[in-house]
Amino acid sequence: MTGYNTYIFVGLAMATFDVSQHYQPYPKQRMAHAARVDELFYGGAKGGGKSFFLLWAAFAHCMKWGQDAHVVLFRRQYDELKNTLILEAKNLWPTHMDICRYVGNEHEFRFKNGALCQFRHLHKRDDADQHFGRQYTLICIDELTHLPSEEWYTTLLGSVRSPKNDRIFPRCLSASNPRGVGHGWVQRRFCVGENYEQEPMVPFEVNGSTRMFIPANVYDNKALMENDPEYVNRLEQMSEARRQAYLYGDWDVFENQAFPEFSDDIHVCESFDIPPSWLVIRVIDWGYTSSPFYIGWLAKDPETFTTYLFDEWYGATKGPQGGTSPMEISVADVAQGILDRQKGRGFPRPRTTVGDTSMWRREHVDQNSCIADLFMRHGIRPMKGADKHREPRKQMYHELMRISEDTGEPRFQ
Fold first, then answer.
1. Is 209 helix (H, G, I), strand (E, B) or coil?
2. Where do runs of H (alpha helix) occur along 83-239?
3. What's the CA gap between 310 and 307, in Å, rounded?
4. Non-local CB neighbours of 168 within 8 Å, separated by 6+ positions
5. Which stretch of DSSP H or E encloses residue 206?
6. Global confidence as pTM
7. Spacing of C-alpha 321 from chain mean position
8. How many CB atoms lie within 10 A of CB 58?
9. Tens digits of per-residue pLDDT, 366-407?
10. Where does 108-239 have alpha helices with state H?
11. Strand bridging mode 204-206 / 209-215
């Protein structure tokens, strides 16, 4: 098989499979399939057909090279693999035609021509290390920015080789949306620029290895635009930063964020009841006329030392012209709202409340009292002031949000 012929003939029985019924690559995808580079990064925005590109690239490789083909597709979590790539491959690939079959307990497709396509997760650094020294003629990585370290990626690159057939060009294909713990290193490695539509889309060489970035977004994906015309409208409803990133592929839009490594997929978990034995604290960042107040509840797991932000109250209202404005309510009402919230939701009693240092300034109320005094007077006690030094605190949260090499999880969610 060369390229994407409409019909693929397999085995002595000459069974036919009409690929075009399932996949008609649009120009950006065709360019990606044809690119002869060691490392290809495709997509960079939502709706660009990233998963389809990886799946059909893997399928074509297996069909073309038969017993000499050993393909592996990665995602960060196994559940992500099961619900995306594996599910789509089982639905799209011709398992009913004796061309390939899925072996569930091994998480792999075995092709009649001898090719092997495996699906693996990269939850921890050890998972990447286990593949070092193996031989893969094609590696595909979906959602590359979910990998916290470039070292995980380069470890996998050491396994890209074709010892049995010198006609095979072994390579690594990857795809991703912007944002995620690996956003920064992926952007640097593939020179993902700010002006999405004017990317040169030409290979470049680094230390003897060729790389290429091919940007694609929902507007390139005509099939999605026709089948789900509301998809663009849903992306338009996102915040400005996310809209620029996910709709247009602007990778620099998160550059000035305090925590650019934050990822919904990694740092947000399913809700659960906080055990009463866990340490719980409240935090207050006070605001009134110039900025909204913020109340957060955090709990720490005594076994894993992971800190969970499990509830928030943001004191803002929507303005008539969009945006938000502070809720101008009294300290007494905020304090009562905190107590009511805790009682109504069954929170464990916080051991203490940490407030920003401005709450202890006497000039905010009078010379004999302050905002912190008022909160304690209305039942929010004990209270203590936060550390005045912002940079060490910020650095601590960067460390907590980093993926642990041992567990594959952050220590702040």
1. strand
2. 87-92, 125-129, 150-157, 183-189, 222-227, 231-236
3. 9
4. 65, 68, 69, 137, 162
5. strand 204-206
6. 0.67
7. 32
8. 26
9. 667 888 999 999 999 899 988 877 777 777 877 887 777 777
10. 125-129, 150-157, 183-189, 222-227, 231-236
11. antiparallel
